[in-house]
Amino acid sequence: AQSVTQLGSHVSVSEGALVLLRCNYSSSVPPYLFWYVQYPNQGLQLLLKYTTGATLVKGINGFEAEFKKSETSFHLTKPSAHMSDAAEYFCAVSAGFQKLVFGTGTRLLVSP
Amino acid sequence: NAGVTQTPKFQVLKTGQSMTLQCAQDMNHEYMSWYRQDPGMGLRLIHYSVGAGITDQGEVPNGYNVSRSTTEDFPLRLLSAAPSQTSVYFCASSYSARANSGYTFGSGTRLTVV
Tell me, what's the pLDDT at A68? Predict the structure, then answer.
């Protein structure tokens, strides 16, 4: 079975600062990894995903994530935060035909 | 292209009442699922379907029923609502049961049981 741990339920950054949201996964088989973003009162939107191939994955809105098998991590980064990035971010893992398993989420707060 | 449509957006129920949360997608997706979102717990899978006529239980199925008579629709039924079912419910779909395809989510139904 797969599982995901997101470190930090809240992360605060200043506008223009680096965003780093941490995700560690557990999987007995090669995983598929996802980051989703949820804006207030909305559904989840896919930011990016890793399935196979290049370990550095670029997504929408300037976000990217790197799959590190040795560290079982898939951290999400953005070089420069914008006020519009304030949202809740979910890391998720799956493999094969298994269902998607979500982390508990990290709320990103961006201050001016 | 509407994507995944959920109705209603908000609902208040009394304990013991029943209701159906509607989910429809117009993308011809094989796979559909229902999640509930609770503070500090992320999203937990309630039921899912890999195609018309096929459903299965997820992590937290108790108190909920589903059916999939068409590719487009996947309603979630609460048989006898309980306060513990107060939550935000999301329907999601994917073109394949293989989870590497990523999911499209509806905008959610916020349910309060009093």
Answer: 95
